[in-house]
Amino acid sequence: MAARGGNAIIGQSGGPTAVINQSLVGVVEALVKVPEVGRILGARHGVKGILGEDFIDLRLESADVLERVAATPSSALGSVRKKPTPEECRRMFDVMQKHDVRYFFYIGGNDSAETTHIVNEEARSAGYELRCFHVPKTVDNDLRVNDHTPGYGSAARFVACALMGDNLDNRALPGVKIDVIMGRNAGFLTAASALGRRYPDDGPHLIYLPERPVTRDRICSDVRDVYNRLGRCVVAVSEGIIDADDPAGRTFTEVILSEAGPIEQDTHGNVQLSGSGALGDWLANLVKKNVGEKLRVRADTFGYLQRSFPGVVSPVDAAEARECGRKAVEFAVGGSWLDGSVAMIREPGEEYRIRYERTELRNVAKETRSLPDDFITLEGNNVTVEFVRYALPLVGELPENCRLAGW
Amino acid sequence: MAARGGNAIIGQSGGPTAVINQSLVGVVEALVKVPEVGRILGARHGVKGILGEDFIDLRLESADVLERVAATPSSALGSVRKKPTPEECRRMFDVMQKHDVRYFFYIGGNDSAETTHIVNEEARSAGYELRCFHVPKTVDNDLRVNDHTPGYGSAARFVACALMGDNLDNRALPGVKIDVIMGRNAGFLTAASALGRRYPDDGPHLIYLPERPVTRDRICSDVRDVYNRLGRCVVAVSEGIIDADDPAGRTFTEVILSEAGPIEQDTHGNVQLSGSGALGDWLANLVKKNVGEKLRVRADTFGYLQRSFPGVVSPVDAAEARECGRKAVEFAVGGSWLDGSVAMIREPGEEYRIRYERTELRNVAKETRSLPDDFITLEGNNVTVEFVRYALPLVGELPENCRLAGW
Fold it and tell me: Which residues of chain B neighbour A306 with C-beta distances below 8 Å?
């Protein structure tokens, strides 16, 4: 199957990352080398931009600007959280037909893969010839098939550094410190809090993950144990931890917020967990009340900082994000496939190496994966050395964490 | 006056910074060159360590470890928030006499300068011969006499990067974003949120500082104006902003927390403002209720992340922190003074250059300074170009912030 002539649309979708523009530029730089592809259109705010015919001509961007945009965090084309209806898909095909678009690249996580999948299926039903490719990104690292996803390495680097700093801070001014970290259903990002540990008593001393529901009592007794042993305690908590005492199996955030008023959801049905300090403050009060009223207890919620922080970028992550963009184009014009997603597979062996494969859209769409069992300790309140071995190559070399020999 | 023979104590005090260990190592590397100085003792947790005779022999530390400790954020000797009583001072002199200590170096902010001042005055009254020198540090940048203080440049770099990333995030997924930034009484750190702006419509679009009390109505109408103009709004808020409607002139945080229960204070009389998302969440609700129920409003509180984040360090700041440590020793053994603090004075002229002077302890102790009037716009909700000119040389080169030419 020779590549079909026509124009291309690229969109970005879902939460921004520090390296999502690397993928965008990867797609563009690969597309300009394909003779069959004419115009390269950037859709502003993803599918919303297609519906509104809101395009940028990416062929007009200079190589210098593209390189600088690649190094700039967050989605340069704008993003969106939107699942298109069949009716909206047909309107998109009208727009695409008008612009003779035959290639669609969508950079995002599982929800964006679902959108790509829907667009692809609807194009088939409508008889509109379109090659739909999804380019992976998500700080949550919860895409199936993939060893890991672009965006995770840099966000994990932020979390590792943040906890390294916070542990040093807590050692200097002891007390209980609670850090709330992003990750709706998967604990990968929260687990990264362990990566900056160097000394046996370095924090985080406790890591609570969405994969292991936990009770209030257990959190308090865990904190009490660590505090009694070390005189301080640093806790990393996922925003998605589940209340083991809740009959409905909801997250603590949902339990707390449901008492406060109606809950915000997006069109994918996701409840807002970030952008609020509620869980952190609630946990700090819980610990204070149950472990010690006189304890110095503080809580920080990392919120949106962790997903696109300029200057805290993993070089490995940046390079892989770029390559995912290039590979999507290679798969799209290579002749073997009409649709798919780029999957990152780790080669076996001691040396860290990644192979890029094409996978079916349905394999990465919608459903997510969780932290594997062997990455979580039996007690359920920490990560294993297997996790550290898995994640360390993804974050780049970490900053200095050195103590005086005398202490 | 020749330098008197004897041993030296170094302590760190107050909130950690990313470069406070540079100052520690600066003091140590200068002291080892002074023949009159024998042992160099590090007091763990500042004055608390002196009272408890809890010392580390810093002469035993290798040059390699010292260099790596200098590059590690937070206080390697441990920190403390404690104002010694006259009685405690006399107990400290007993300890010092026992160890033949004649030099006391204390690294910290205005509260630590006050402690150094108290120790110095009490030593005079008690007839205990001691040279007391304060080495400046504070992310708040509120020490008097100084152009700026070590620790500020790196924390300001963090805040500038954070807002740069958050502005890019907000441009990709528009809405109202509120970021709460440290700074008890002075708005220097919050003002640094402006340093990453590059394009005319880059956020933060509004900056609220402790120096300008503001009403709830004004915040809401400001946000409404920006949102109507740009379709989005990024707001940087100091944790110390004052409620202009409160008859007692308290901070919003104090007003909110006073409704929630008793307020925590340290021995310097400071109320806890950090380590809680209360102000951010409250502001998000305020905006939602008054500007638009359907608005996407999020709030992040940077908390402790901003003061000692590994890897986000201003090279200028690190070098100056080191030099402040060295200068304190130079002043202490130079023969002209028995006590004092190191002050950083900016040389006039286009090129950025700093001169180090000895100043009286009372000049930097206790009282703080605020953001000068010409750094704040007349409207009181943003900073001027004069501030940017002042602060840019302190944070080092900032990461890339580049848009597509087409948007």
Answer: none
Structural domain boundaries in chain A: 6-150+312-364, 153-310+370-395
Minimal-distance CA residue of chain B relative to A68:
B402
Local confidence pLDDT in tens for the 407 residues of chain B: 556 789 999 999 999 999 999 999 999 999 999 999 999 999 999 999 999 999 999 999 999 999 999 999 999 999 999 999 999 999 999 999 999 999 999 999 999 999 999 999 999 999 999 999 999 999 999 999 999 999 999 999 999 999 999 999 999 999 999 999 998 789 999 999 999 999 999 999 999 999 999 999 999 999 999 999 999 999 999 999 999 999 999 999 888 877 765 545 555 555 555 557 889 989 999 999 999 989 999 999 999 999 999 999 999 999 999 999 999 999 999 878 999 999 999 999 999 999 999 999 999 999 999 999 999 999 999 999 999 999 999 999 999 999 999 99
Residues 6+ away with beta carbon under 8 Å from B364:
B110, B113, B134, B136, B143, B144, B145, B146, B341, B343
Asked, colleague to colleague, whether A6-150+312-364 and A153-310+370-395 share their fold, the answer is yes
Which residues 265-284 of B are in CB contact (within 8 Å) with A? 274-278, 280-281, 284
Distance from CA of A9 to the nearest CA of B (A): 15
Query: Scanning the structure block, which residue is given the tokens 């992003």?
Result: A182
CATH 3.40.50.460 is held by the domain B152-311+370-395: yes
Complex-level ipTM: 0.95
A305 contacts in chain B (CB < 8 Å): 162, 165-166, 300, 302, 305
Interstrand relation of A233-238 and A339-346 (parallel, antiparallel or unpaired)? unpaired
Establish, for the pair of chains A and B, how many residue pairs have beta carbons separated by less than 8 Å: 249
DSSP states of B349-397? SSS--EEEEEE-HHHHSS------GGGB-TTSSSB-HHHHHHHHHHH-S
Verify whether the Cβ–Cβ distance A406 to B57 is below 8 Å. yes
Hey, which CATH number is domain A153-310+370-395, 3.40.50.460, 3.50.50.60, 3.20.20.105, 1.25.40.620?
3.40.50.460
Residues 8-27, chain B: which have Cβ within 8 Å of A? 12, 15-16, 18
Query: CATH topology for B6-150+312-364?
Result: Rossmann fold (3.40.50)
Catalytic annotation on A54?
no
Q: Which residues contact B78 (CB under 8 A, 6 or more apart)?
A: A171, A172, A173, A407, B12, B44, B45, B46, B49
Q: How close, in Å, is residue B293 to chain A by CA atoms?
A: 11
Which chain A residues have a beta carbon less than 8 Å from that of B309?
161-162, 165
Contact A304 B307 (CB under 8 A): no
Chain A contact present for B50, CB below 8 A: no
Distance from C-alpha of B359 to C-alpha of B363, rounded to nearest angstrom: 7
Residue among A164, A165, A310 whose CB faces B401 most closely: A310
Please choose, from the candidates A125, A143, A88, A108, the residue with its C-alpha nearest in 3D space to the C-alpha of residue A321.
Answer: A108
